[in-house]
Amino acid sequence: MKRYIISFIILTKIIFGCLWISGTTIDGSYTNQNPRDDVQLEILSRQIKVKPKQLIKNIDNFSLIDDKSPKEEREAIVMILKGDYSKAIEKLLECEKKYPNRYSVASNLGTAYELNGENKKALKWISEDLRRDPNSHYKTEWLHRYILKLKVEHKDISKYLKIHRVIELPKKFNNDTKILVDKKYRTVKSIRGSIYYQLRERVLFVKPKDPIVADLLYTLAIINANTSNLENATKFLNLAKMYGFVDEKKLLDDKDRYNKIISTSKLSPMWHINYILDDPSRILLYILFLLIVLLIFKLFKNIAIFLKKR
After folding, report:
1. Cβ-Cβ contacts under 8 Å for 252 (sequence gap 6 or more)
2. Domain regions of the chain by residue span
3. CATH superfamily entry for domain 62-134
4. In this predicted model, what pLDDT tens digit does every residue of 99-131 receive, in sequence order?
5. Which of 24, 30, 73, 80 could bond to 69 as cystine, CB 3.0-4.6 Å?
6. Contacts 24+ apart (CB under 8 A), 157-166
C-alpha cells in the first residue's frame, strides 16, 4: 500500500508539473504568469542572438524604417546594420538636408552617432527626434535620451552604475507607483514598457557585455519580482549577468533568494490549491486526472493480485 501511495504522490507532482503555467510572487504565494512579460523575455532572448547584418534581407520590417522612408534613409540603415556608422551618418545628414524635419532621420542619426561613440551628438539628435515627434517609438524615446544624458554626464558609466541604477526603484512599489525619472514622474508600468521597447532595439546592436543593457535587464528583473513573478525575474537576472551586471554578488544573492522562495512556495499545499481554484476548468481537469490515476492504480493492483495468485 505504501508503494501505491508514493507512486500516487509522484504521479500527482508530474501532473502539476505539466499543467504549471503560473508563477510565484515575492511573498511566496501563487499568481497567474503575465504573458506580456513572458513574451517580452522571449523576444529579448531572441534579439540578443541576432546579428544586425541578418536584418538586411527583411529591412522593410525593421523598426528604424517606415513606409515613408526615402531611398537615402534606407541606404543609411543598411550601412548601420553593416556597422558602417560613419558612412551612415554622412548619408543621414544628406537626407536631413533633402528631407528636413523627418523625426525618423533625427532618430537614426542619434542611433548612428551613439554606436559611433559620439554621445553628445547622439543626445542632440535624439532630443531633436523627441521635439519633432514626442510620440515616436511608442512614447519610449525619453529613455533613450535619458541614457545618453547619463553617458554624457558620466564618462565612466560602469563606475557610476556601481553605485547608482539607470532607473532608481524604491524598496517597495507596484505597477502604479510613480517614480521621478529625468524630471518627470512615471509609473512603474510605463517604465517597464519603455525598457522593453528600447532594449528590443538596443540589444540588436549592443551585444554582451554592456553595463547599461545589463543594468536595465536587472531593473526588469526587480520589477518582475515585485509586480509579476519570480520565475521570470530569475531569467532576467540571467540575461543581466550575461551582459556583465556590475554587482554580480548582489545579482547572485537576489537570484538565490528568489529561487528559495520559489522552491519553498511550491511545497505548500495552499500554493497548489490557489492554482486550481484560480480557474474552474482546472478543478474539473484535476478531478479527471484523479479518476484516471485511481483507475490506473486499480488496474496495477488487480494485475499484482493476479500475478501473486499464479
Report:
1. 241
2. 62-134
3. Tetratricopeptide repeat domain (1.25.40.10)
4. 999 999 999 999 999 999 999 999 999 999 999
5. 73
6. 157/211, 157/212, 158/211, 158/246, 161/211, 161/212, 161/215, 161/246, 162/246, 162/247, 165/215, 165/218, 165/219, 166/212, 166/215, 166/216, 166/219
